[in-house]
Amino acid sequence: MSMSTRPVAGPGRPWEFPAVHHATLANGLRVSVAPMHRLPMVTVLAMVDAGATRDAVGHEGASLLTASALTEGTARLDGASLTEQCERLGASIDAGADWDSFMAHVAVTPDRLEQAMALLGEVLITPGFRARDVERLKEERLADLLQQRVEPRGLAAEQFREFLYVDGSRYRVSAGGSPTTVRGLSPEIVQAFHAAHVAPSRMTIVLTGDVTPERGVALVERALGSWRGDAAAGAMPATVDDRTVAGGRRVRVVHKADAPQSELRVGHRGLPRLHPDFFDVVVMNALLGGLFSSRINLNLREKHAYTYGANSMFDWRRGAGPFVVSTAVKTEVTDAAVREILLEIDRMRSETVSADELSLATAYLDGVFPIRYETTTAVAQAIATASSYGLPDDYYTTYRQRVRGVTAESVRRAAEQHLHPEELLVLAVGDREAIRAPLDALGIGPLDVVEPAADA
Amino acid sequence: MRIPVESYRLPNGLLVTLSEDHSAPIVAVNLWYHVGSANEREGRTGFAHLFEHMLFQGSEHVGANEHFELVQRAGGTLNGSTWLDRTNYYETVPSNHLATALWLEADRMGALLPAMTQEKLDTQRDVVKNERRWSVDNQPYGTWWERLPALCFPPEHPFHHSLIGSMEHLSEASLEDIAEFFRTWYSPDNAVLTIAGDFDPTEARALVAQYFGPIPRAAARPELPSFTVAPSFGGAQRAVFEDDVVLPRLFLAFRSPVFGSAEYYAASICGAILGSRRGSRLYRSLVREQEVAQEVSAFTYDLSKGSDLLVVDAMARPGVTLEQLEAAVGAEVDRLHRDGVTADELARALALIETDLIGALQSAGERADKLSQFATYFGDAALLNEQIDRYRAVTVEQVSAFARARLGADNRASLVYVPRAAGGSGAAGAVTPGVVEEVGA
To answer: Which of residues 356-375 of A touch B (CB under 8 A)?
Structure first.
């Protein structure tokens, strides 16, 4: 009866990305405020365009260590006291760095915003960087790196970076550094990184949530308006050393004895974030492996049951991050899974998608847009990302229109131009004895076997 | 701060909660079924979770891969999860697609079995086995998920056995098991439905009545074995395992008052004082001052029957032995047990809990999930609005009394991981792998 009639959706209600109000303080600090008055919550996010790609050669990991050390105390307060003052406001200042940005943020109820802003300002302007704290964070980071090497996903990520990027490229080493480079970091290096990059002229502060533009700007002015000084280093350079290996398809087995699964990474050099084909590539990748209902996931999971899940992604950064298909498959089907992944990449290039399939991705990316920006922190991060990459002011207000403008033809062109079957690198973390011969028999390209180093 | 809550029951027993919020044109649909791994019969560990996978394989009017596709095509997000005592299914969609979300949920609640086939079961069985390899067998410390409940509840208890299940039991699950489990547990009178976000209540009620109204109640459900356990372990429990890891790790569990009970809020605050964020006692002492732990935190399982668990999770720093780590955690727990907490500590914990709760309510999906949680366990979704007041009513004396009653030596279960002995260095030397020891009383 009624269940056999499928519901038909009426027209959607319009939605606008929260309006952003911009201001610049006398010291050059940029302030962006996006009011969202639904709940009593405000997110404050401070961003400097100084992520891991600003680490000096040999000091890889400096940006992340500097960010972590920010919240370990100020000149006035030791780490325990700073933490206590924040947490009594019901807030934590979280600081971190990715490839392109250095960020610290805090979410707090509006009645405690002024105090939280004052603490955030103190942390940014007068961090303590005490030797004992920095050394402890270094040790923690080193232990994390050791742990990652016994964790198949962490090991696969590290090995794939080293497989793809040439020696000397910043992207060859993780954003947080390698054991060797982290060991070489010091409180002085952290201090110098802060002095070089964290300055009002380089910073954007974003406030989102239950705050007016007037109050937001006034609170930033009070906490950070008297901050003087310039960054020793200039703004982010336009280019990043993102050189990748050349020379065609290769296969690498990273040995993990008796592994019940093989962690697979299949990919090649991707594209920089500001590439003009961004929207075509996003839609193309959604169909290839970005969505649950994508070709790669339906093939590997729902058709063959090789895996719990499989996906593909373009890792968008200022330079060319990787394009990579990731999955973990039962050891016995390692070769079969690789074959299916290669077939799906070929098929994406050779066949034009139907209008029906295209609309799966465009309707999803269009419709899900308001759901992505429900929270104050998600909106703050989006505004900071736009600022970091210099995306146009109307980027978020025209996003859905741009997605809907992608055609089957532009998807095929994006696949043809930006998927490179002849350059694919295939990496498998698994049991060498079980997977080496079957992978070799696929005839993809030269195969080598790596024993992961215990420490390097 | 209160969110609007309106609840009613359909004649077939389905408890429906509506919570309007028109600030964005999106709506969350959330169903909790009051069934989890605790409801599995003997020899079928992992079945409740395997069954959850089958609910995404289509139903009478929905094709094999259509559930995901229809929601994603609508611009929605979706998933499901299985826990010891409940299973949830949820989607957040643009508000003009509310009818599609309700129709999909109703079709699988009312008419799942016509779509079940041996081929789909075989496929999802293999998918779940791969999930087990991915999350448990091929992950450092991955087995803690099944070993901690096994240590904390006696063998006959419904929470004792593995939620993800054994490979052997997964292999044995049959289509008849699917039919029986569905008829027994997946009925409107054993479920709650929450709609949160941008909808018209008149229209939503009409859609719910149209799609869910005709689904019949189930026959009487079987009694489960008793959930009741003593409030403490009655002695220290300890299990030690070797694993392919580089650092020792300790899970220290205490039996604690069940979720939502009068004593739960003091227990939850005590857990936050002990191990929530960097201002907690354990972080401050073990990570910052003594430098013996790499990470440390505390959490509750939020179980609503029998006993909840409060758990400390501590990872040693390189060079620190298991004995040093256990001694440091033990000393902090002893001090809390003996001396109780201060008003400052209570204020910090309260402030963090409040911010977390308001933060979680920003998302329609999380709002709906929390409303379903209170509707499922207590038949009253509006209890969500009481939570902050319940936390605020807790006194220093109550938290200290909880610590005195429940953090003593008679109520501690330690699950311990040590690096596999390869050359006999360090901490692993003295222990017998995989042996559950009864130590002391």
So the answer is: 359-360, 363-371, 374-375
Give phi and psi for A235, each to the nearest 5.
-65, 170
Last residue of a domain, one of B178, B212, B246: B212
Q: Are strands A447-450 and A250-255 parallel, antiparallel or unpaired?
A: parallel
Between CA A216 and CA B388 the distance in angstroms is 27
Q: Which residues of B touch A10 (CB under 8 A)?
A: 96
What's the CA gap between A403 and A400, in Å, rounded? 5
- Residue B63 forms contact with A (CB below 8 Å): no
Average pLDDT rounded to a whole number, residues A414-423: 98
Residue B296 tokens, joined: 């440390």
Which pLDDT belongs to residue B135?
Answer: 93
Answer whether residue A54 is part of any domain.
yes
Contact residues on chain B for A381, CB-CB shorter than 8 A: none
Q: Give the minimum alpha-carbon distance from B233 to chain A in angstroms, rounded to a whole number.
A: 33
pTM of the model: 0.95
* CATH number of the domain bearing residue B273: 3.30.830.10
How many helices and strands (H and E) does chain A possess?
Answer: 17, 12
In a shared domain, residues B272 and B162: no
User: How far apart are alpha carbons B325 and B416 in whole angstroms?
Assistant: 11
- Choose among B371, B384, B62, B37: nearest CA to B193: B371
The model's confidence at residue A231, banded by pLDDT at 50, 70 and 90, is confident
**Residue B226 forms part of a structural domain:** no
β-partners of residue B297 are B313
Do A208 and A347 fall within a single domain?
no
A384-387 contacts at long range (C-beta below 8 A, 24 or more positions apart): A384/A45, A384/A47, A384/A101, A384/A103, A384/A204, A384/A206, A385/A101, A387/A30, A387/A32, A387/A47, A387/A49, A387/A204, A387/A206
pLDDT digits 0-9 by tens, A254-274: 999 989 999 999 999 999 999
Grade residue A2 by pLDDT with cuts at 50, 70 and 90. Answer: confident
Residues of A in Cβ contact (< 8 Å) with B109: none
Nearest-10 crossing angle of helices B364-378, B343-360:
110
* Residue tagged 């500001």 (tokens): A274
pLDDT in tens, A169-186: 999 999 999 999 999 999
Q: Which residues of chain B have pLDDT under 70?
A: 422-441
Q: Distance between CA A107 and CA B56 in Å, rounded? A: 36
Would you say residue B395 lies in a domain?
A: yes
The partner residue sitting opposite B25, judged by closest CB among A15, A40, A143, is A15
The verdict on B234 touching A (C-beta cutoff 8 Å) is: no
User: Which domain CATH number covers A147?
Assistant: 3.30.830.10
Q: What are phi and psi of B235, to 5 degrees?
A: 150, 160
In a domain, residue A4? The reply is no
Phi, psi of B195 (to 5 degrees): -120, 120
A294/A299 Cα distance (integer angstroms): 8
Q: Would A14 be classed as within a structural domain? A: no
Instruction: State how far residue A385 is from chain B, nearest Cα, in angstroms.
Output: 21
Q: What is the pLDDT of residues A290-328, one digit of tens each?
A: 999 999 999 999 999 999 999 999 999 999 999 999 999
pLDDT at residue A177, rounded to an integer: 97
Total tally of structural domains belonging to chain A: 2
Q: What is the identity of the amino acid at A163?
A: F
Cα Rg of chain B, angstroms: 23
* Separation of alpha carbons A423 and A248, rounded Å: 5
Instruction: State the total domains in chain B.
Output: 2
The per-residue pLDDT for B434 is 38
Q: Which two tokens stand for residue A116?
A: 């939280």
Kindly report the backbone phi and psi dihedral angles of residue A318, in degrees, each rounded to the nearest multiple of 5, phi listed first: -60, -45
Report phi then psi at A221, rounded to 5. Answer: -60, -45
For residues A72 and A176, membership in a common domain is answered with: yes
